[in-house]
Design brief:
This protein is α/β, with parallel strands linked by helices and 487 residues long. The protein has two domains: 171 residues, Roll (Urease, subunit C, domain 1), CATH 2.30.40; 305 residues, Alpha-Beta Barrel (TIM Barrel). The chain has 14 helices and 17 strands. Strand 10, helix 6 and strand 11 form a beta-alpha-beta unit. 48% of the residues are buried. The structure holds zinc ion. One of its GO terms (molecular function) is zinc ion binding.
Length: 487
Amino acid sequence: MTFSDEVKKTFITFYGTFVDTPEFGSLRIRKDTAVGVCMDVSIPDKFGKIQFIVEDCKDPLKITLQYDSSLIEENIQIVVHSTNYDNHINTFFFPGFIDTHIHASQYPNCGILGNDSTLLDWLNKYTFPTEAALSHLPYAEKVYDKVVSRTLANGTTTATYFTTIDLEASKIMAKTCVMHGQRALIGKVCMDSNSPDYYIETCKESVSSLVEFVDYIENELCEPLIQPIVTPRFAPSCSRNLMEKIGNLAKDKSLHIQTHLSENFNEINWVKELFPECESYTDVYNKYGLLNHRTILAHSIHLTAEEIDLIKLKQSGIAHCPISNTSLTSGECPIKQMYTDGIEKIGLGTDVSAGYSCSILESAKAAFSVSRHLAIKKENQDAKLSVNECLYLATMGGAKVLDMEKQIGSFEIGKSFDCQEIDLRSPTSTIDIFEWQVPTLSGTKPKITQLNKLEAFDINDVISKWFFNADDRNVVKVWVNGHNVKN
Ligand SMILES: [Zn+2]
């Protein structure tokens, strides 16, 4: 049979154990579950989306045919966990990770920080030269190809990227995401102030290249998975005029906005000097039209109570970037306190390359650790984030930050099927897990006398083992909008 003779699959039913975190702190486990996804391009409203979820299912094919009697068997693909290892729970489906803050252009610098770097000197020494170099398009192609494939391999199905000020290189990034099948918001960086002479735009150039970039994505690329995002680098890099102009563009076209906020004390003091007319750093973005329910604020570590209230009022989201905040000694963002204060739109960002890893799972572990340090320092156990809460930030929290909680972040009917298959015993896995530690699908315990005193793991232990011990070698497959993008 040739490729063209292959029967087109218009429906996929995924079958196995589904794990997700629909609420902050919750862990939902659905075993023997069939999740049906429409892959019929002639039905764009349903394409790539979950059509049914049936728990305690014994026959996924039968369930699929019952769901839609017009489907024929040869058009249906059944995807079962790659292995079940003698009926033990080692594999499961988990929602794709959402990276709410990553600089694609800085990927070559991952792991290069300098011993004493803090934000402002790190930008000048490492970051601006690297970003400027990507106006050489062959470099941009290589870097963007690598960062997209690497993040997908780590289970990131949606990412919110900064590129550089270069329009053509930013277009390459958009095409690269399409080629690899990743869902992405892509921001051409805007900066017309306080930047090196080799890496700066005029206000006019910045606005016109942003307009052209948005037009390119909306009218030329025309790929539903890709959105442009308005990206003023941070307040010190932007004139009042630039912020107002791009804020208006975002408003007119209902575009998301991303920027940095309150990362480091020198930066905060600098913003105070540059914008004396504003009450706070957050107020700069508010005054110049950049703060609304589609705004993503990276870091937001050292906020005052007034700034928290303003962010709540405007319903903006926060990208927590714990690896970066530790690496540049920026600070410890009090995420749990923010929740208590009523900010619910909080996700995770790798902040490559101030963050040394492009893995959201690594960021989730760092969020766990930073919260523990806060608990120690403040002698307050309430500051701690649990494993489940960190996994929520990595998925549903990120979806809320992007205002996409009805589309992605968990497994629900009507949502896109963005998913990673986790296998704790994949051939290259470095997790050592013994057969008597793993619960069986039926819940039975091994019948060995010496093991009677041992508590068999429950599924929460399996998730915990994954959370702390796993890496991309345990991400065996990834789907975005029903398409297999890592196999
Ligand atoms: Zn950043």
